[in-house]
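Hi team,

Filling in the usual template for the complex we talked about on Friday. All components are listed, including any nucleic acid strands or ligand strings, so the model treats them as one assembly.

SUBMITTER: L.P.
PURPOSE: interface mapping
COMPONENTS: two
RESIDUES: 726
SEQUENCES:
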Amino acid sequence: MPTVDVHTHIYPPTFVELLRSRTTVPYVRTFPDTPNSSRLVILPGEDDPSTPSTSRGRPIGPEYYDIAQKIAFMDMHKIDKSVISLANPWLDFLPAEEAGEAAQRINDDVDGLCAKYPGRLYAFGTLPLSAPAETVIKEIERLAGLKHMRGVIMGTSGLGNGLDDPALDPIYAALEKHSQLIFLHPHYGLPASVYGPRANEYGHVLPLALGFPLETTIAVTRMLLSGVWDRFTSLNVLLAHSGGTLPFLAGRIESCVKHDGHLKKKGNIQGRRDVWEILKTNIYLDAVIYSDVGLKAAINASGADRLMFGTDHPFFPPLEEKAKEWHSVNANYGAISSAFKDDQSQAQDVLGNNAIRILKLHD
Amino acid sequence: MPTVDVHTHIYPPTFVELLRSRTTVPYVRTFPDTPNSSRLVILPGEDDPSTPSTSRGRPIGPEYYDIAQKIAFMDMHKIDKSVISLANPWLDFLPAEEAGEAAQRINDDVDGLCAKYPGRLYAFGTLPLSAPAETVIKEIERLAGLKHMRGVIMGTSGLGNGLDDPALDPIYAALEKHSQLIFLHPHYGLPASVYGPRANEYGHVLPLALGFPLETTIAVTRMLLSGVWDRFTSLNVLLAHSGGTLPFLAGRIESCVKHDGHLKKKGNIQGRRDVWEILKTNIYLDAVIYSDVGLKAAINASGADRLMFGTDHPFFPPLEEKAKEWHSVNANYGAISSAFKDDQSQAQDVLGNNAIRILKLHD
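RESULT (copied from the run log):
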């Protein structure tokens, strides 16, 4: 009975090299006061020059870029297969003229890493979204021919105006045509002002615990409201972190749509596919939610045949230096075993069978 | 078997009078081009002078201020008792020197409305939060002596710096001492920028469906992280809209706290009461969530003995002019009946028994 991790990130060597060449966020740098370790700074808020360099971003070690460490992590946690994806912020920040080539180079690098461990590694590719649409579509077609690629990872920014941007339609059409799933993942969070004047006292908790899932929820709701799934009825999206908060808020979203005078006047209410139908037809959810309360809501919203185990590795490592197993991983294992305590067969579907069927990981 | 509505708002005559005297948000005004109806504008984003007055805010009719209409609505939906509360934005906007007297006047007005329908109406009072702390505490003590008052409604702003503001401690202490529950309700939402450039095309859906619950979630998480419930272990809070998204995200919040190096270094992780304990000890949730998926998550997080039916009346009225029953109300009734289809006794607890026990509505 295989266990498959669909939410696990890597900064492959070609990407780290790109980040090392930069001096503005996102970047990787070795600061003079800590010559023996490098730091990865991916968010503008983490780049405050008034703080010591050791509190800027996070230390980046081999668990971020060494594929052998990914395999060791998988072995420790009895994970048979992983579908690796470039970590945020992907290539969103690149100038248009560099993005196409960078995407090819990095996707080839990742496909090559997968080839080293036959049957154990697959990947979601990265799109050069800042490049012209034809470049993006060319890369989608190219990815469809790479042996280990099983879809694409995408942030919430799209071409810069969100995932409800009509300019994305040719890209959605190409993804739908090549049956490529989108793994939708947050990065940008919410404006720092929403967390209040004491937010810094709580470390990274507010942006990580709330900003990320809320960003995902807003992005997917904008897709829903703009009719993306009415136009592309076979477009599939895997939502990170069990949908952000979509399963919990789906009822409120439907109610607000049905009670909105503006949408009714525009005629946008009649004939649309509702959020529940899309949750059960076009949306897949990972099981990175750390509680059986959340996991059961995700299952009730989308169905036990649409959830897939994930770890978010290499993020959320144990704080204790001697710890071997990762609490964060065991929390997600525990949630599955608790949610399905009366149905081990469904637990096994979420742990691995769904991913093998949905992402075609048979070889 | 009584049905009790704990989430139902009123703009009592004294409050409408106050709003009519104003020219900036929040206000009530009769615009020259619609002389036969008044409009209520409560959010800065609804006050765009470049749009026709008929799309500014919403029409305010007797369902907002006439207590007889509240009773008629209750009768239509077989609601035996309601715990009415002033609707947002309460008195947050008042200058310090006016707030104390306004709160007294409005609370007395609301208590008087309840007195007209013995046994059917109770209320949450409103605090003059912009006034000095001693004025706020005096009103808390006064409310404890008013016959129909059963706690206070509060927004997420507190004294202007959120509910994790240490300056709120004397107020929390007074509420705890007088066993007054806080009904925590959103109003401010999120900055408009998070909804993207096409947000206006979706009417009010994004701020209402997502902004409101996310605001509540951020506010309550700030309370948790600042240790409000470690200092005030008997302080009870009823969260609007089934907790915003807290039940779904509680696992992620706990995981982020446990994995935060900054909090660990500060020693803030050891000994604190965790989110699950607070959800089951200090937090109550209304059942205004419009789906059994969300409702079950709320029940799994807090327990079926801590949820209480609500309607959000007079908001979310049916769009069809001839409709009698309200879809929004029936969606919440339906969620309860579906979530508890095998346990009518628990359904009855959520519909009314819990509210009668928790809020002492025995007379």
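MY TAKE: Residues 205-225 of chain A form the longest helix (21 residues). Chain A touches chain B through 70 residues (CB under 8 Å).

Thanks, L.
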